[in-house]
Design a protein that fits this description.
The protein has 10 helices and 11 strands. The chain is α/β, with parallel strands linked by helices. The strands form 2 sheets. Strands 1-3-6-7-2-8-11-9-10 form a 9-stranded mixed sheet, sandwiched between helices. β9, α3 and β10 form a beta-alpha-beta unit. α2 crosses α4, α6 packs across α7 and α8 packs antiparallel against α9. The chain is globular and about 60 Å long. The relative contact order is 0.14.
């Protein structure tokens, strides 16, 4: 725990950890921040980002350049008298570079273990061919069969196969290595909105978590925010549809790619995702076998077209030098 600075000591009863950072639809980060704010969680520790992040730029305000910004990662704690399990919430502004992710996860898990935490929760997005007006379902993956059964009884679907990419999955593997239970709650999001904030999915995973831990907090603000996002998506889809097309039809699979690319043009790739892609490019230049991971990441964010030339350059042979 060399990078952890303790800010405040609290007596915690049977605590669990919720860990979150930016990702698709900002599902995890928004859910954790909403939880932190509604429970009035107090900061108890922070993780020094210096070893895990390298600033990629600076901000300019009124022509003045600021110092480089390092992503902040903080632990917060809140009491939960209803279930007897207090909460520790870790929120980071970004995910570290790929080559540092495992060690970053280790720091978090080691600190969690020092607080006698036995269960770690993460949230994630699950892109599926659904529409943005649907209430998303929640899926669960866990290191323990008993936990899967408990969530299944509560109406949460088991994630039967696939991969949980990034820290959302990796940290749960590290938790298991250290004897802690790991649980990921995945909220469904439409395939064509991966770069757009999705409060509906954040609300869905929070409902599942609150039922499991018997948490009590109001979701009304998140619901109102979700309604505003749906309205914005409706306006964008209307704009992208062919002129004169008045009939309202369900979005089919042929529409998904059109809307996905179109909506991506109106939104920006999250900085953390861009940093992850650049990190994967560096790894692929050193080890071409990592190009598969890179291609998956580009497809996940629907930005392969933007990076196609750079990606194909990885496979060009270097010219031979004369002796």
């Amino acid at each position: 725990m060399k990078s952890i600075k303790v800010l405040k000591k609290m007596r915690l009863k049977n605590p669990v950890l919720v860990a979150a950072w930016p990702g698709m639809g900002d599902v995890a980060l928004k859910a954790a921040m909403y939880l932190r704010d509604k429970l009035n969680a107090a900061p108890i520790a922070e993780l020094d980002p210096g070893e895990y992040f390298h600033p990629s730029g600076v901000s300019v305000d009124k022509s003045l350049i600021s110092l480089p910004h390092y992503p902040v990662g903080k632990f917060y704690a809140a009491k939960n008298s209803a279930s007897g399990s207090d909460l520790v919430i870790f929120v980071s502004e970004a995910q570290p570079f790929v080559e540092k992710s495992y060690f970053y996860a280790q720091e978090i898990i080691q600190f969690a273990a020092s607080l006698k935490i036995k269960t770690v929760y993460t949230f994630a997005a699950m892109p599926l061919p659904i529409e943005h007006t649907q209430m998303p379902q929640v899926h669960v993956a866990s290191t323990e069969k008993q936990t899967l059964k408990a969530f299944e009884r509560a109406g949460v679907r088991p994630m039967t196969s696939g991969q949980i990419s990034g820290l959302n999955g990796l940290i749960l593997g590290v938790a298991k290595e250290n004897g802690l239970e790991g649980v990921c709650l995945l909220g469904e999001i439409p395939l064509y909105t991966v770069q757009i904030e999705n409060p509906m999915a954040s609300m869905a995973v929070l409902k599942a978590l609150s039922e499991a831990l018997r948490l009590s907090f109001d979701l009304a603000d998140l619901r109102r925010h979700a309604d505003r996002i749906i309205e914005e998506i409706e306006h964008l889809i209307d704009y992208l549809k062919n002129p004169g097309e008045e009939e309202v039809k369900p979005i089919d699979e042929k529409d998904v790619d059109v809307f996905r690319k179109g909506l991506a043009g109106f939104s920006s790739l999250p900085e953390s995702a861009r940093d992850r892609i650049e990190s994967l490019f560096r790894l692929a230049r050193r080890d071409l076998s990592r190009a598969t991971d890179l291609k998956k990441e580009l497809d996940k964010w629907n930005v392969y077209d933007q990076y196609e030339d750079t990606f194909l350059d990885l496979f060009k042979k270097s010219p031979k030098k004369d002796n």
